[in-house]
Specification:
Blueprint (H helix, E strand, L loop, with lengths): L7 E8 L5 E3 L3 E10 L3 E3 L2 E15 L6 E17 L3 E2 L10 E2 L8 E6 L10 E8 L7 E8 L13 E7 L2 E15 L1 H10 L6 E2 L3 E11 L12 E8 L16 E3 L2 E10 L10 E3 L4 E12 L8 E9 L12 E2 L6 E4 L6 E11 L3 E3 L3 E12 L3 E14 L6 E15 L3 E4 L6 E4 L21 E12 L7 E11 L3 H6 L13 E2 L21 H4 L6 E4 L29 E4 L24 E4 L8 H13 L1
Protein name: Arrestin-like N-terminal domain-containing protein
Pfam family, one: Arrestin_N
Length: 623
Amino acid sequence: MTSALSKCKKYEIQLARESGVYWLGEVITGNLILNTSSEISCRGVRLQCSGKSYIHWHTGSGDDRNDYYGSKTYFSLRQTAWGNFYSTMLKDGCGENCVYGETAGDGDLNIPMNTMSSPLGSFKIVVRVMDYDWGKKDDLLGEILLEPLSMLLQAPGSAVSFPLTRKGKKEKGEVTLSAYIEDNTMSVQNAVQEQGGAPATTSGMQTLKLKCHQATGLRKADWFGKNDVYVQAYIVGNDVQPGQALPEPIKNMKLPAGNIIVPFQFQIPWDSDNPSSLESSMGDSCYIRYSLYSNIDVSWKLDPSVRKMITILNPTLPPPDLLCPAIRPIQPDTTMYACCCCCARGKTNMNAMVDRQSASAGDNLFVMCEVKNATEQSLPFTIKLVRHEHGETRVTRMEKWHSKEYELYSADIAPGCVHKLSEGQPFPLKLPSCPPTFSPKKVDGYKGYHPVTWVYDLRFNVQFPGAFGSSMTWHVPITISPAPAPMLQNLGLLGQVPQPTNPVTINLSDPAPFNAPSNMQLPPTSYYTMIPPTNYGFESQPPEKDQTQFMDPQEDMNNFGGPMAPYAPKYPEYTVGAQQAPFYSLPVMPVMEMEGLKSSTAQVHPMNNTTMQMEMGQGMQRG
């Protein structure tokens, strides 16, 4: 017997956006491409868009090993790409009143319409409200016959309520629906051209976008517990008449041989609690992954499948007050030790300031810094962007911390010297490609639980050489925002930026977990039309750990084309709108005691290039 997977010559999810990078709230569009050598007996072809966060780590080994897990599904949107019936998402425990809309797309029913063979107004559609029962046949709560369909389409998108029936008789409850028609002609034609013009079968040139808003006043179908409700819809023949028991859907079907093209679209939920994509080396496995997944529903869990990974970015805006400069307060000299308190090797000190505490990936932070080395040895000096990742299990609330470092600047400060990053002018530090800050407010319950969150800080560090040498460190909490501040301000998205009278004083010398600002908020829904991620370059970070890309071993066991390659998200690196000069003029650097010391100035940035020199020059002219 030939398996369904062996009959698939091509199985692919094609996106309309080549980069595969989307903001929260955007609409994902594309085509499902399937080419089969012969007919496949199945229950349908399913399509799903989902986002999941997962963490796993362990302590000990052997009999003393303890494993810790945390996971959360942020959304799971499903639709039938090809089949005889179409279903909404299941609403667990909703009882007598089932209301959709809590999650984007949870009440959507996308039904392809072959209007080439029959006019749109002649279609008859059965809508059934069902109670899901594990291990036995689902209960029918009520049904309606949409006849004719054009009645619902007289006011496209307007909600209309219909009383329910069962076996041709009146039943408790009603269902509220709306609908409109979406044309797929251009999408299908473009996909055919990309396939070399080969003839293709499609589920329909038009799609009926049927939406269930609610099903209320339902009868109780279970002796114990509450109804677990979903709604299904399917096309029936013209011989079906109202006032009689409506036919059940035909679940088994034959997927035709040849080239099949099915257009699709998904609305990504607009929720600030949904994080950006992330691949981390914390623990044994740690990620936040978003993907499109399709499977041919056959028996015995042998579904041929394909998965397309995408990158989702959280566009949460930083509060305007983070654009104020931050300064390290004047402090007495720090004694540097080679190993312990009895091995003093001299003193050091540091004056430093940063032009703001919020920037985007690829943006420039401007700093002014002087480091005094009054020891007899050369001292390494570094400036790093550090991502602090926090992992947590759901039930036991066990915690784990992990840090990821990006080096932005380094220098060796000679003995008896004061090292200056720049002589009287701010020095640009270009930030690497990295995910926006994600550290939502702590709230009780499942909504407030996140397996992994992260924040950033800018770390200035002077280290005495040796395994036990002492160090002097300054930490500045940094919020990585979704776009450069000047761009956000020009578009009116940043709000009123305060004019600072004095810079913010930050005195953090010890590493510590930081919390993101509490007043971060989502921008208006027009944000992703004003700043579409397609306008900017992307940098794909290599995977931090050789871990499997599979999100579900059972779902992906028959992945078309074999095991998938390791996945790495793509983050925007803004080449347009990046900060060219400090947002505010920085105050005068405090005078450092330099008796008996020489001065050295950094001339070349480790990441410097022609663009960076130009940016620095513009900053000097505008500063």
